[in-house]
């Protein structure tokens, strides 16, 4: 609906600017707004108060014969037809409830649902009643009034002013690297492995490096080896994929792992083991894992 409202900005009608969007499987098929035939002048070209029908003194009862505009829904269907796009089974969002003429077009085109923002409210109440009855004949699965949420409108107010695409998050480094002998904090295991994957193209190994991993997230990796879950403050030996190390359950509820040597493949298995333990034992500490590695071979899987 928000897109339909934005399309209405192109409207050539001073009285009721309207927009329509045809959507299928969450993809936009066509858009339309109420305006004159292609190449013809718009009422908006003659000033903000101009209306061709009103200038001619034509009453509401005969407005369709003297309005210069094609309705937004009809223009959207025509645009799809012009470019050979089927709208069978699609949904239509429009800022104004369709009139009877557009409703017949919608039904004939095979559109299955209509969502509108505002009721038509013509001056002919008998005609309005007839239109509402015709909706049932149109075979639509849904014909419903909807409004853009206040939350969405607030988000729009933050993105519409220039510049829309100015960076809103802190920029990342072109290529960040780890150094031996330092400690780094990572949000989750996958982030650590991704960074090391790039590092492997620059260096063969890291020495005496430590990583604090804040959260196990949904990281999973199958591993083989012997793991005994320690008591708080206890340190126990572990062996994962042939790599020997020590596992400690620190008093705050997190895990501490020390390894003399790991490869990238071994590290992935160790991280999988740590994430599995954190979930199985419902560890809530942050970081959930402190990992110290004396030698990390980056060239070996």
From TrEMBL:
GO terms for molecular function: dCMP deaminase activity; zinc ion binding. Its EC number is 3.5.4.12. InterPro entries: APOBEC/CMP_deaminase_Zn-bd, CMP_dCMP_dom, Cytidine_deaminase-like, dCMP_deaminase-rel, Deoxycytidylate_deaminase_dom. It holds the Pfam family dCMP_cyt_deam_1. It comes from the Bacteria. Residues 1-142 form the CMP/dCMP-type deaminase domain. It is an enzyme of class 3 (hydrolase). This is dCMP deaminase. It comes from Thermosulfurimonas dismutans. The lineage of its organism: Bacteria, Pseudomonadati, Thermodesulfobacteriota, Thermodesulfobacteria, Thermodesulfobacteriales.
């Amino acid at each position: 609906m928000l897109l339909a409202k934005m399309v209405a900005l192109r409207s050539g009608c001073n009285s009721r600017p309207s927009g329509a969007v045809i959507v299928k499987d969450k993809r936009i098929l066509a858009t339309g707004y109420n305006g004159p035939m292609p190449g013809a002048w718009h009422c908006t070209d003659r000033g903000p108060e101009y209306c061709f029908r009103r200038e001619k003194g034509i009453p509401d009862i005969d407005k369709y014969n003297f309005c210069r505009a094609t309705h937004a829904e009809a223009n959207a269907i025509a645009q799809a037809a012009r470019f050979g796009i089927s709208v069978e089974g699609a949904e239509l969002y429009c800022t104004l409830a369709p009139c009877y003429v557009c409703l017949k077009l919608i039904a004939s085109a095979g559109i299955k649902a209509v969502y509108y923002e505002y009721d038509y409210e013509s001056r002919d109440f008998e005609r309005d009643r007839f239109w509402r009855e015709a909706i049932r004949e149109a075979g639509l699965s849904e014909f419903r009034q909807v409004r853009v949420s206040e939350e969405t409108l607030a988000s729009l107010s933050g993105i519409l002013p220039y510049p829309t695409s100015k960076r809103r998050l802190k920029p990342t480094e072109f290529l960040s690297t780890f150094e031996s002998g330092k400690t780094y904090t990572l949000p989750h295991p996958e982030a650590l492995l991704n960074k090391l994957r790039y590092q492997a193209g620059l260096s063969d190994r890291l020495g005496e490096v430590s990583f604090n991993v804040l959260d196990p997230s949904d990281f999973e990796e199958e591993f083989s080896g012997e793991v005994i879950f320690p008591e708080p403050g206890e340190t126990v030996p572990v062996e994962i994929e042939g790599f020997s190390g020590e596992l400690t359950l620190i008093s705050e509820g997190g895990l501490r792992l020390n390894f003399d040597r790991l490869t990238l493949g071994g590290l992935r298995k160790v991280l999988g083991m740590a994430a599995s333990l954190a979930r199985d034992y419902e560890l809530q500490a942050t970081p959930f894992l402190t990992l110290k590695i004396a030698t990390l071979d980056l060239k070996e899987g």
